[in-house]
Amino acid sequence: MTTPTSSTTEQVTMYSTPWCGFCKRLKSQLARDGIAIQEVDIERDPSAAEYVMGVNGGNQTVPTLVFADGTAMTNPSLAQVKEKLTEQ
């Protein structure tokens, strides 16, 4: 689990699974850009899986990112995440 360390970003939580290629790619891109995340494996945390299903119309779609303001994005691009962080 990665703890937020950047003073330029608010906390971002990424709900993911270990086998998700989209999750791995986005996590790598965020790390390269210095955007810290807290990662939650929905396969190990049933309440996290329920949350993701609630955000995504009953589907366990990952990556689902939740921002400090409570908004969520499903499978966003790096550009979308960066744009959202500049709004906060």
Automatic annotation (TrEMBL):
Which InterPro entries has this protein been placed in?
Answer: GlrX_actino (IPR011915), Glutaredoxin (IPR002109), Grx-like_ET (IPR051548), Thioredoxin-like_sf (IPR036249)
Where does the signal sequence lie?
Answer: none
Annotated GO MF terms = electron transfer activity; oxidoreductase activity
Domain of life per record: Bacteria
Q: Which Gene3D superfamilies match?
A: Glutaredoxin (3.40.30.10)
Which enzyme type, at the first EC level?
A: oxidoreductase
Q: Name one GO biological process term.
A: cell redox homeostasis
What keywords would UniProt list here? Oxidoreductase
> Transmembrane region positions?
none
Pfam families hit by this protein: Glutaredoxin
Q: Which NCBIfam families match?
A: GlrX_actino
Question: What name goes with this protein?
Answer: Mycoredoxin
What is the source species? Lipingzhangella halophila
Q: What is the lineage of its organism?
A: Bacteria, Bacillati, Actinomycetota, Actinomycetes, Streptosporangiales
